[in-house]
Amino acid sequence: MHLEDRLTIETPEGVSIDLTLAGLGSRLGAAMIDVIIQGVLLLAVTLALSLAGTAVSADLGVFLLGVGTLVVMVIVIGYYLVFEAFNAGRTPGKAVFGIRVVTVDGSALSLGAVTLRTLMRLVDFLPAAYAVGAIAVVTSTRNQRLGDLVASTVVVRDRIPASPASPSMPAGELRGWDVSAVGDAEITLIRRWASRRHDLNDDARRNLAGDLARRLRHRVGGGRELDDETFLLQLLAEKEGRSE
Predict the structure, then answer these.
(1) Contacts of 202 (CB under 8 A, 6+ apart)
(2) Arithmetic mean of pLDDT, 101-125
(3) Closest alpha carbon to 103 in 47, 212, 185
(4) Looking at the structure, do residues 10 and 116 belong to the same domain, yes or no?
């Protein structure tokens, strides 16, 4: 396994995006942080239920035990479902290490895929400390654990390099753009390009920007006076600004 394993995804829109696969070290580090967070939550629940159990009857204590079991399941399983499905594939641990989960074909990460890879953690964890999962990451061609293989997902590096502020246009000119004509799929593509443009060589960066800009300029009805890269950055900023 190489430290800079890369994966090229051909999106449904016909755009190729190069992604850097996350290695075993960053994945284990992220998993450790997530386990610590879950452990703190479980400890808090256990203490709360223990204190409550001492102050109630035996029957109510049995009820609290059942509630506690349900809460444990929610914390262990729901933790990954919530963060990965609704936080762009990032748990807190993944966010710290700058990695996230994506699909192998560039489509949106679905709740079903997240559920599959979450349930497979029970197997990946065997016999302890994610041993099976670690072996799978090291031996698979895309650094995938068993959960990734079943759900058709990969974990990629998502660190956004710092860069100088891009040129901006007067707000009055931007208000003339019809950004509502640009859908979530296109904005996702622009966001991926923007986050990885410093990792691409000049030709690849310009070609991808040119392809995206040609598709979108006529939709928004403006930006022809801007170069392709500036247009995309302004479009992304305007779209995300209006959605807040």
Answers:
(1) none
(2) 88
(3) 185
(4) yes
Domain that holds residue 198: 171-243
- Asked whether residue 165 is assigned to any structural domain, the reply reads no
193 against 163, higher pLDDT = 193
First-to-last C-alpha distance (Å) of the chain: 41
Q: Residue 51: its pLDDT value, please?
A: 77
**What is the number of structural domains in the chain?**
2
> Can you tell me the distance from the alpha carbon of 53 to that of 85, in angstroms, rounded to the nearest whole number?
35
Same domain, 178 and 117: no
Same domain, 177 and 150: no
Residue 143, domain member (yes or no) = yes
Same domain, 30 and 110: yes
Q: Comparing C-alpha atoms, which of 91, 90, 48, 43 is closest to residue 195?
A: 90
- More confidently predicted of 159 and 147: 147
pLDDT tens digits along 54-94: 766 666 666 666 777 788 888 888 999 999 998 888 999 99
